[in-house]
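Inputs:
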Amino acid sequence: MWWRQALIIGVLTLFATIVQVTLLSRLGLPGATPDLVVVVVVAIALTMGPVDGAIAGFVAGMLVDLAPPADTLLGVNAIVYVVIGYVTGRVIDPRDRTVPILIGIVGLSAGFAVLGTAALDALLGSERVVWDEMAGMTISTVLYALILAPPVVLGVRWLVARVTPEVLVE
Amino acid sequence: MQSRRTRILLAVLVVAALTFLILDLRGGQGPFSGVRSFGANILGGLERGAATVFSPITSANAWWSTMRDQATQIETLSAENDRLRSELDTLTNDKARVAALDGLLKVSSVGGYRFVPAEVIAVGPTQDFAWTVTIDAGRNDGIEQDMTVINGQGLVGRVLKTTASTSTVVLLVDSSSAVGGRVATTEEIGIVAGTGQQDQLDFQLLDPNAVVRKGDALVTFGSKGGRPYAPGIPIGEIVEVKGTPGELTRSAVVRPYVDVSTLSVVGVVTRPPRVDPRDSVLARSSELPVAPSPAPLGGSGATSSAAPNQETPATKAGAKKAPSTQPTAPQQETAASPAPSPGTG
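Outputs:
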């Protein structure tokens, strides 16, 4: 049921994008903003496989670039998230599906998202990136992602098992 | 077979993203920009709804960060309090004077900016290094691109993009932001540029021999037609001067009055004042004690919104201690201390 997968991907990425800019970034937490979007993309990739992961990454990236007050070039996050969605969906070995490894993958992906987006932005001529703060931003993003990972991965897994059990990666 | 399809899909997605990227990089105004503004419109509407749902949480956060700030400030404040207490006695015990000053504040704050109030509903993620926020007023409310955005403390930024119901504001501290600034006391002008860090601006003076001092206040110089920046809006105060007079470039570090991490209600200036208010908006605090008899100006006991915020700590401090009359000399010093304070709000 392709439309059920599309529905899950659409709803989850849209929800994550909106929550991120209207709630998480306004909490004024120290360091970076918790990157719920990348955690959701990785959770989809881990539960639905690399193809759905890549699609979710594309959709999420476009939404993040479109949602006000974003002022990046359209597509920057999409490229980074497609790669993350595909690679995390592919790299996971069914025998390795232990909780620490899953959470670790989410953390690494979040760190990669920050660095990848900043590098791409810089390559495309953005002068916004403050490299002095890069280390702190990456570390705090990874930490927040590690905190967000267990509930989000479990939640997405539960949702996928209910809505489209046939695509669930065991 | 499966992996072949996967690879094709992956290639399609990456190429699609790259296509968007390249089209956007070229900055075309074709059908593509319509797609983008359509998407931004839809998402902006959703953000408005979500902000309403989350408003109890986000306002609680504002409260919490205020509490947290207060905890760290108590130590410095109590030390400062002791020093200021004697200075403030004569000023704050004079209730009639305070009422008159409120009136004066009101008069001077009628700088003539006409603005549309709006609330911040979404903020860009910190790791994007883009200091942009979304506000809940858009084209339907008369907001247009490049309008000035202010709040009670001073300059917030300018409108970057608008949708029907929301606008994106690029904040003063964003590294793409540059404002013409003027030192209030010496009339020296220069460019105030964002550094991407939230409590720091870079002020490049045009005259390499200009004399600027730590603590000097900056106001906007004003652009032609009041866009993107209306004149006379407080920007911040100089905290560090770099270089010596006569050097080729002369710059200073400026701390903005507006705390971008706790933005909530802002005003978008839809019509700049007919006459440049010069330093009058700043002067509302520094002129107070030297005004000889403000009673006729003050008139009504109406309190302006800005006044109580600045006067409250003083009133509390004064009320605790028994009134002890002092010579009026310290008042001149007091005049200086409230002036830089608007940023701490």
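Remarks. Chain B is about 40% helix and 20% strand. Helices of chain B lie at 2-26, 31-92, 95-109, 280-286, 295-298, 306-320, 330-336.
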